[in-house]
Specification:
mainly beta, 5-stranded mixed β-sheet, 5-stranded antiparallel β-sheet, 1 helix, 29 strands
Length: 419
């Protein structure tokens, strides 16, 4: 852990979608993998199993537009404004123009008009496996969104044997009475399927050149497959924007290697983000301790389950990363765990000194952590205690840092500079 770390304790992804009444045709690309908790949602509350094994209870209520004003949060540099709340939120994405898509693990997607605060449930979302950490996952607008509305998202789906993560494509149509997805087409599936409900990962990222879609694929708690390149468990895959494995992927010429693998030896990479310089970063939830921020290298083996700076649950020993062990060591690791559920690289103007820095939302850590990035170097700078499990973090078009709390509170928060 960096000696520069400071922990602060309080007391207590831009032409705008027209308003929902206007006609707009949007192409959406969907993806499936989920690490979220299960349970059922009845519109009131739901009990779920979270990524770190804890139980959470969710409740949601709609609210109005942002007032632009927040209250200072003691021990942090932020003024915090509560903007909305959701049941079991998992991901959010800002659309060109500023409106917001939010996914809930139970299988609901919301389109939120940021100007008015009004939100509508999106119809036509695929059926999901809402169990354990499974459900509706990430959402991401494509690089041509302003022209054709392409969006990507992820979810857990049933299979002949067990279940798996999936990636799809659709159109988001906003004319008529409600926004809806049309023409849904699955473009990638995690292989093999597993009879379990954890470690889907299924975070999404698109490179700055707008050529490649990256998908994180967790080990599904099977561990050993992460070292077996004949499958995509415990990997990060690289596809073209239609879901086809890229021809020059690092293992493309390796006999028996699964198509698409870009890196492997991962456990549960719940954060995936490309820096402006094109470097790919991933935050990964470790076992008991050993959470990681990784610079993702083409063909890199990140060690799991042969190496980790954490331990097996129950105290079982796992060799630490060591020089010369053949594995890529994390750029930063955490022990004890913060349980990073998301990753964002800041590109706004409100926090000008933090341009290009990484932010990780902590689940069990109930925290927000800032890591300074300088090319391939990463230095943990500070961690702020937020008082709730942080599921997703995004930089808004307004320059604010937007945070989604996990099920149990489920609040959408807007963070601006205090004072």
């Amino acid at each position: 852990m960096s000696a520069a770390r400071r922990t602060h304790r309080p007391s207590s992804r831009r032409a705008r979608l027209a308003t929902l009444a206007c006609a707009a045709l949007v192409a959406v690309t969907l993806t499936a993998c989920s690490d979220g908790g299960g349970g059922t949602s009845d519109g009131g509350s739901a009990t779920s199993t979270a990524d770190d094994g804890s139980a959470t209870t969710s409740a949601s209520s709609g609210q109005g537009a942002s007032s632009g004003a927040g209250e200072p949060l003691e021990g942090t540099p932020f003024a915090v404004e509560e903007v909305d709340s959701f049941d079991e939120p998992w991901a959010m994405a800002f659309l060109p123009g500023g409106d917001l898509l939010v996914t809930e693990r139970s299988g609901t997607m919301h389109l939120r008009d940021q100007a008015s605060g009004e939100r509508a449930e999106v119809a036509g979302v695929p059926e999901v496996v809402h169990s354990g950490q499974g459900g509706l996952g990430d959402v991401l607008p494509g690089p041509t969104f302003a022209d054709d509305g392409t969006v990507y998202l992820s979810w857990a789906e049933e299979a002949e044997q067990g279940n798996r993560a999936a990636v799809g494509q659709a159109r988001l149509v906003t004319d008529g009475d409600e926004p809806r997805l049309e023409g849904l087409e699955v473009i990638w599936r995690q292989q093999p399927s597993v009879d379990g409900d954890a470690h889907y990962s299924h975070r999404l990222a698109i490179d700055p050149e707008a050529e490649h879609l990256y998908v994180s694929s967790g080990d599904r708690q099977e561990q050993d497959p992460a070292q077996d390149t004949s499958n995509t468990l415990g990997t990060i895959v690289r596809l073209d924007l239609d879901g086809v494995p890229v021809a020059d992927n690092p293992l493309a010429d390796e006999d028996g290697a699964a198509p698409g693998i870009y890196s492997y030896g991962h456990r549960n990479p719940l954060g995936l983000e490309l820096a402006p310089d094109g470097r790919l970063w991933s935050s990964e939830m470790g076992p008991e301790g050993g959470d990681e921020l990784n610079l993702v290298e083409a063909g890199g083996n990140y060690g799991w389950p042969e190496a980790s700076n954490g331990s097996d649950y129950g105290g079982g020993d796992i060799p630490d990363h060591a020089e010369g062990d053949g594995f890529v060591a994390p750029a930063v690791s955490w022990d004890p765990s913060i349980s990073p559920g998301s990753l964002m690289i800041y590109d706004g103007e409100l926090f000008a000194d933090w341009e290009g820095d990484a932010f990780l939302g902590g689940l069990s850590g109930e925290s927000l952590t800032r890591v300074a990035l300088d090319g391939a170097q990463a230095t943990e700078e500070e961690t702020w205690e937020m008082g709730e499990r942080i599921r997703a973090v995004e930089a808004g078009p307004d320059g604010a840092i937007w945070v989604l709390e996990d099920a149990g509170s489920g609040r959408l928060l807007r963070l601006t500079p205090a004072g």
